[in-house]
Amino acid sequence: MQNTTELNDKPKRFIYHFNPEETEITMQTRDLEILYGKTLAMHNADIQFQKNTITALIGPSGSGKSTFLRALNRMNDGVATVKGQILYQGVNINQPKIDVYEVRRRIGMVFQRPNPFAKSIYDNVTFALQRRGIHDKKVLDEVVEKTLKQAAVWDQVKDSLNKSALSLSGGQAQRVCIARALAVQPDVLLLDEPASALDPVSTQQLEATLRELKKDYTIIIVTHNMQQAARLSDYTVFFNMGEAIEYNKTRKVFTRPKVQMTDDYVSGNFG
Amino acid sequence: MGKVFDEEIISLKADFMKLGALVGEAVTNAGQAFVDHDIQKAEAVVTNDHEINHLQIHIEKRSFEMIALYQPVTGDLREVVGILKAVTDLERAGDHARNVARSAISIKGMQRIATVEEIIATMALKVSQQYDDSIESYGDADEDKAKRTAQSFDKKIDELYNAIASPSYQAMAKDPKIVSSAIIYLNVAKDLGRISDYSTNICEWTVYLATGKIIELN
């Protein structure tokens, strides 16, 4: 049992910093501030994301984790004011001159509810490519097979690629959405509570898919499910009241967090 | 539970079995060192005890992490909890092996009782066999073997302990010069007896692993 003095000696915040000489950083936020109107929704959130890892963003509702995630591929444009730097491969993408569509091609997003288009599975996956003028069937076929395999749903849908994606189960639809995000060959995959609408079996399959995908992508996932963060991610950021409170290896966050508030949150004694 | 947990539990169990082998080696070597008056071998057992302690802490840490990260249930939980409990028994068995090795070092130059040392040799061998069988039963989650092992050795070990203790006390009563070595014989017999007890505990954890039942063997 720790005494009060020891508890008080714990830091209020702890943010892990990588040594850039030893670690490849794919994305990084610096001096980030996000405002909805005049309300400060996020500050103190300088986070580095290591290449080929899964980072979980956790925290109570309204803590700013989704706001933070959406800032990473500029989905807050027109919704909130984002100040500071969002560095992707060393380039600050938080500037008007940066092509936002190119940003979103490299930094893909998968949402909470599976949102397949009312089109065939095939057209869902190839939608962005066709819009960019790629119509070579051979190229598109290859992309469909490759990405559906990466998203671990190929075996289930390969004989019904022309069926509507709306006919799929939640878990399958979510993995088709992941395939759709992968079709434009991103580097980073952002996921906003991708398993919250899925049953436990589909969730487990989705997690297995993400573990495979991290070999090729950098994955950042918002989740309300702390067990999911614990078993899936390599690193965890705990947000509260619009700031990053603790960022560390997931093993550390869930066994011996440095900040008392994190300890209270992950052990369910929060509030 | 998912693939990652399965992989981690395989690796955790491999570490546990490695610790089991290290302690087994310590038990065998400590007994041999005492019987053969082999100081060098005894010193090696004492030195290797650090490695045992280090690995025990590593296994405990990993077990805690696995519970925190994966929150396992049913058979998965038993795998982790079984290791977490049995690892303490292994480490303690290792401590007693180290004690036997220390006794082998400290008895050097003292007056000996050959007949008692013969019985110690037999007891050391039996304890070592019992330990090896216990670890094997845990590795295979073999409930029957665990029960057989605990039951077949228990009585014999008690008899051997008494066969060492009685002549040691008698010798002390007769000749004060033999007191120091007789005390060492008693300590060694006690250490070997404790190793046997820990082997029985490991058998009990094997039954828990296989069936989920917590029982007392013996």
Short account of what is shown:
Chain A: It is an enzyme of class 3 (hydrolase). The complex is a heterodimer of chains A (271) and B (218). Chain A is α/β, with parallel strands linked by helices and 271 residues long.
Ordered list of secondary-structure elements with their pairings:
The complex is a heterodimer of chains A (271) and B (218).
Chain A (H helix, E strand, L loop, with lengths): L3 H6 L4 E2 L9 E12 L2 E4 L5 E3 L3 E5 L6 H8 L8 E8 L2 E2 L7 H7 E4 L10 H11 L5 H14 L3 H4 L12 H13 L5 E5 L7 H14 L4 E5 L3 H7 L2 E6 L2 E7 H6 L4 H7 L5
Parallel strand pairs in A: 1-12, 5-10, 5-11, 8-9, 9-10
Antiparallel strand pairs in A: 2-3, 2-4, 2-6, 6-7, 11-12
Helix pairs in contact in A: 4-5, 4-7, 5-7, 7-8
Chain B lengths: L2 H34 L2 H32 L3 H33 L7 H26 L3 H32 L4 H33 L7
Helix pairs in contact in B: 1-2, 1-3, 1-4, 2-3, 3-6, 4-5, 4-6, 5-6
Task: Summarize the structure in words.
The complex is a heterodimer of chains A (271) and B (218). Chain A has helices at residues 4-9, 65-72, 100-106, 121-131, 137-150, 154-157, 170-182, 200-213, 226-232, 250-255, 260-266; strands at 14-15, 25-36, 39-42, 48-50, 54-58, 81-88, 91-92, 107-110, 188-192, 218-222, 235-240, 243-249. Chain A has one domain (4-266): 3-Layer(aba) Sandwich (Rossmann fold), CATH 3.40.50. Chain A has eleven helices and twelve strands. Chain B is elongated. With 218 residues, chain B is mostly helical. Chain B has helices at residues 3-36, 39-70, 74-106, 114-139, 143-174, 179-211. Chain B has a single domain (3-211), classed as Phosphate transport system protein phou homolog 2, domain 2 (Methane Monooxygenase Hydroxylase, Chain G, domain 1). The chains are: A alpha/beta (271), B mainly alpha (218). The interface between A and B is small, with 11 and 10 residues.
